[in-house]
Amino acid sequence: MSEVMAEATSAPSRQSATAGKGHDVRPNATPAPAVTRAAAVLDALADSLTGRLTLSDLARELAIPKSSTSNLLQALEDAELITRVGTDYALGVKLVELGAAYLSRRDEVKEFYRFCEQAPLLNAATVRIAMLDGDNVIYLARYEGHPAVRLTSNIGDKMPVSLCSVGKALVAKLHDHDLDEQFPDDVALPIMTSKSLKTGRELKAEIRSIRAQGYAFEDEESTLGVVSLGVAVPTRGSHGPSLGVSVTALKATFSEAEREAMVGELRDLTKMLGNPMG
C-alpha cells in the first residue's frame, strides 16, 4: 500500500504491510475462543493477496479441524461478515456498513472534511487523516480536491510508519524508550524505493529533525517522484487516539514556498482537530 503513486506506479499488497503478524487462536489465549477465532478469520481474509481463502486455508490458519472451521464460517456468513465466492470465502458487505458507522461517528473525520473544503491550498490537494496502529498507520479518511498525485491506498488500508510522513510524525510523539523498543537500531524496515529508510537507526535520526521542526517530510520514500508532508494531531486527553494528517505533492513542481504554506495549513488543521472548541 503505497503512500501515494504517480499514474504508472503500482502499490504493494496489504499483506506486505502486515507480514508476520500471525493470528494466535489458542483456546487458552482468550476468555472467548469463538470470538477470537472469528476475528482471526476476518484478519486472514483481509491479509490474503487475493482477498479469498478456502475452507482448508482457514482451517490451517486457525489450526483447528475443518468441521469446527466450517461451523464458524457458516455463522460468519449468516451474519454477512463474510461471503462465499464459489468454493472460497471473502469479506462480507456487513463490514463496510460497520466501518462506515464507525467513521461517521468520529467527530475528527467530519471536521477534517470541513476544514479541507475551506483551506486555500488543501482544498485542491489530496489530504488524509490516519491513526497510529503499532508499526503502521490506518487511513481513516481521504479528501481529494484536484490533485496532481493519485493515491492508491484506500480508507482502512495500513501503511508502515517509516514509509509515510504521517506515520513518522506520529511515532515522533513516542517516548525515546518506546522508540528504542519498537525500532531497535539494527531492525530492518520495509523498503519500497531506493530512498526508503532502511533501519531503525535511520528512522530515529530523522525523528530528531521531525521533533525540532514540528512536521515530517517523506521524500520519495514510498513512491519515486512524490513527496508528502505530515503533522500529528494534539491528543484529546490521555486516552485519545494518535491521529495525524498528511498532504502529497509532485516533487518536480514542489517548492519551499509551497512546503511552508502547506505545513501552515496542516498545523491549523491539527490544532482544530485537537481542540475543536478553541
From TrEMBL:
GO terms for molecular function: DNA binding; DNA-binding transcription factor activity. Residues 32-93 form the HTH iclR-type domain. It holds the Pfam family HTH_IclR. It comes from the Bacteria. This is DNA-binding transcriptional regulator, IclR family. InterPro entries: GAF-like_dom_sf, HTH_MetabolicPath_Reg, Tscrpt_reg_IclR_C, Tscrpt_reg_IclR_N, WH-like_DNA-bd_sf, WH_DNA-bd_sf. The lineage of its organism: Bacteria, Bacillati, Actinomycetota, Actinomycetes, Micrococcales. Residues 94-278 form the IclR-ED domain. One of its GO terms (biological process) is negative regulation of DNA-templated transcription. Keywords: DNA-binding, Transcription, Transcription regulation. Residues 1-30 are annotated as: Disordered. It comes from Arthrobacter alpinus.
